[in-house]
Write a structure and sequence with these properties.
five-stranded mixed β-barrel; alpha+beta; about 50% helix; about 750 residues; OB fold (Dihydrolipoamide Acetyltransferase, E2P); 22 helices
Length: about 750
């Protein structure tokens, strides 16, 4: 026993000794890594991360309206310590990060106050007058954004500033027209499920306080007063975009013309659903969203043309800084292109990144660097802090960060050996171009995969093939044709250019349809939570921003994030925000529709469940459901009944036999048995999702908390598990069966686009 004890003691001492030796070595490696980060000037990008963290804190936790002075004072106090921390670099970096976080919080506070505008309280039908700010032609009809002058007699304090309406008759209207019509408007819809896309938040930052449709005739009238100059200029620009869109679409015709027009003007309304699905399946839908790819190619074409023309003149080539001159012209050209393409959020962020890269050429600095990327992120977030929450910002900056971090691996010089012969150089250059394209696409897809999967719940396994086959067409034919066509358009010499561009786009669509025909070209993944996304985003930052071996610190959060994403929460029952429809998990383990949820909402539920079926494939009685004039019933896999009540006469029976009762009405106070999801619960919490447990149900809500946020009216929350007394509803946001919208509130086109770079 003594020998065993001695051996155990010796082993313990040896283990402690090894640990004591490992810790100093680990500390030295971390210190060496930090020293290299300072040497490579890689700490600056983390200021952008801290700035974004402050924005996230505002959107995740701020309750009510913060005082702008509070975060500014916090930032000032943190910056006041900077002069005293010169000898303590770690404390200095921490102080700057804290200051950046406070400034991010302040930027979000300021932005929310600047875009504040009334939101319509309830569904309303009435006369509407206003000026058309923007008009998007669709395959059938048009969609208008109207600056409201009057609506249904509402006072200015409660009248929306802008409304977005659809009109199926496609009238000969133009941006800038002052119109009068009857409109059916409702508040911008919130998320269709807990954690889903919140259109109401995006609409708030666009100044849109209601959505709906125009009913009956639309008349064009003289405005009561001349509109502001900025509004007139914006309307004129949108009218010019529509004219060019029609010209490009007619030059080629069909879906190739529609896609070609979208590539130039950013107007995607003429693209049909089948074409959109094919582009998504091929992983190239980002091509039709004006974003980084378009900005870089447009700037590159202008840069090359100007530099090549100047190089033809010997005096200019010898005595002028033609590279800087070309960069200046490229900056002007890409800015004009961004303005003409609509200046949307994705294009604006890409413009900022492109301008900084070109500006680096003017001051003789490396154009492609993490420092420039961080500066672009700071400017973009300071202008539009809400963009941090959307897929466009996350995917574009994530892709560029990954490309910069892996630039040495995909720079295209791997197969070109110094001193090689002409044929070997030619073959090596071609092979390097192919591998460079594949490597670039692969890195961009890996970097954007967490954000794309989180927001869209889809993966395109053949996206690498789609991008590799179509990007050469886009880079060599489509975008150069777009630039040349825009230059020829004022001379009316552009139609042959658009025809040539349409031929290349037709080839791109043929490739997309071919790939879309592959088995499992689009995989639908269950939705995972913000915890997994946060860990994966942290892993991406740690893998791309450091220049030293500290990037290995990305491994733990990535592995943990993948683990959480692989085991997402799956709900057994979804209820829409109006109480008119639901989705119930059947005995086969799949969701089935109950009642009449809208097609768009039902597809959002299916995608969140990892189900690739269409909305028309999940209706009927496959889940044991039954419907009549009074309501619908179905059963969960464990046998518990779910009832959806449409008529009050169904309450006595369903209140006694159902485990869950759903209704757009106010349930009577005598309904004590089931878990109630009635009008009051839906008004307070929005859409509801339930997980069935042995002891009952666990509820999640689209309005995750009772926080007061400006993009939705504040309402008093009620407990979902208890009945409510039948008292009058004074919240002003009640939607009863008589006022429930008959059509879909949000269409797939309202969801954020999928830009890549």
């Amino acid at each position: 026993m003594q020998r065993i004890g001695a051996r155990l003691a010796g082993g313990a001492l040896a283990l402690v000794g090894r640990r004591a030796a490992v810790l100093p070595a680990l500390r030295d490696r971390v210190a060496g890594g930090l020293a290299r980060e300072v040497e490579q000037r890689r700490l600056f990008p983390w200021l952008a991360v801290a700035f974004g963290t402050g924005i996230l804190v505002y959107f995740a936790a701020a309750d009510g309206t913060p005082f702008l002075a509070a975060p500014l004072v916090g930032a000032g106090l943190a910056l006041a310590t900077v002069p005293f921390l010169g000898a303590r670099p770690a404390a200095l970096a921490l102080a700057l990060a804290v200051a950046a976080g406070f400034l991010g919080f302040a930027a979000a506070t300021w932005r929310v106050s600047q875009v504040a505008a009334p939101i319509l309280a309830r569904t309303t039908i009435g006369p509407l007058t206003g000026m058309i700010e923007a008009l998007d032609e669709r395959e059938v009809g048009a969609r208008l954004v109207i600056r409201v002058e009057s609506f249904a007699g509402l006072a200015p304090a409660v009248r929306p500033l802008r409304v977005r309406v659809s009109f199926r008759k496609a009238p000969p209207l133009r941006p800038g027209d002052f119109v009068a019509a009857t409109a059916r408007l409702l508040p911008p819809p919130e998320a269709a499920r807990p954690g889903g896309y919140d259109f109401a938040r995006d609409a708030y930052f666009q100044g849109i306080g209601a959505v709906g449709s125009l009913v009956g005739a639309v008349s064009v009238q003289a405005p009561p007063a001349p509109p502001p100059l900025q509004l007139r200029l914006a309307a004129m620009l949108d009218d010019a975009r529509n004219a060019l869109t029609r010209r490009i679409a007619q030059a080629e015709g069909g879906q190739a013309g529609a896609v070609a027009a979208a590539l130039v003007t950013g107007k995607r309304g003429l693209i049909g659903p089948a074409t959109n699905d094919a582009l998504r399946a091929a992983g190239i839908y980002h091509v039709v969203s004006i974003s980084g790819l378009h900005m870089v190619l447009a700037a590159g074409v202008v840069f090359w043309l100007v530099r090549a023309l100047l190089a033809l003149v010997p005096y200019c080539a010898l005595f002028w800084p033609i590279k800087k001159i070309a960069a200046g012209f490229a900056m002007m050209g890409v800015t004009a292109y961004c303005a003409f393409s609509g200046w949307d959020i994705a294009a604006e962020r890409s413009l900022i990144m492109t301008l900084i890269m070109l500006g680096a050429i003017l001051v003789d600095r490396p154009a492609l660097s993490m420092r420039n990327l961080a500066l672009a992120a700071l400017i973009a977030l300071a202008r539009e802090p809400e963009g941090l929450l959307g897929p466009s910002f996350q995917m574009s900056f994530g892709a560029v960060a990954g490309l910069i971090a892996c630039a040495r691996l995909i720079d295209g010089h791997l197969f070109v050996r110094p001193g090689a012969g002409r044929l070997e150089r030619l073959l090596g250059t071609g092979l390097s171009a192919v591998t460079g394209t594949l490597g670039t696409t692969l890195v961009a897809q890996v970097a954007t995969a967490p954000f794309a999967t989180y927001h869209f719940q889809t993966i395109q396994p053949f996206g690498l093939i789609g991008n590799a086959l179509t990007l050469p067409l886009v880079s060599l034919v489509v975008m150069p044709s777009a630039v040349i066509g825009i230059l020829a358009y004022p001379f009316a010499l552009d139609r042959p250019v658009w025809w040539l561009m349409g031929q290349a786009v037709g080839g791109m669509l043929a490739i997309s349809r071919w790939i879309a025909g592959f088995d499992r070209a689009t995989l639908v993944m269950p939705a995972f939570g913000t915890g997994a996304l946060t860990l994966l985003a942290m892993g991406l930052l740690l893998a791309t921003l450091p220049a030293s071996r500290l990037r290995w610190l990305a491994l733990p959060p990535v592995l943990l994030g993948l683990g959480l994403a692989a085991a997402p929460e799956r709900y057994d029952l979804y209820v829409d925000r109006q109480g008119g429809g639901a989705a119930v998990r059947g005995a086969d383990g799949r969701l089935w529709a109950l009642g009449s949820p809208s097609r768009f909402v039902l597809e959002q539920w299916l995608k969140a469940d990892g189900d690739g079926r269409r909305a028309d494939q999940v209706t009927g009685t496959s889940a044991g459901g039954h419907c009549d004039r009074l309501g619908c019933t179905a059963r969960l896999p464990d046998g518990r009944a779910v009832a959806l009540v449409r008529d009050r006469r169904a309450f006595p029976e369903d209140c006694t036999r159902a485990a869950v009762l759903i209704t757009a009405l106010a349930a009577p106070p005598t309904c004590l048995g089931p878990l109630l999801i009635d009008r009051r619960v839906l008004t307070a919490h929005g859409a509801v999702a339930l997980q069935a447990t042995r002891s009952g149900f666990t509820a999640s809500y689209a309005r995750g908390s009772d926080r007061s946020v400006p993009w939705r009216p504040h309402s008093t929350a009620h407990s979902p598990a208890t009945p409510h007394r039948d008292t009058p509803d004074t919240s002003g946001a009640t939607i009863t069966p008589e006022t429930e919208p008959s059509g879909p509130e949000v269409t797939p086109g309202d969801a954020p686009a999928e830009p890549l770079q």
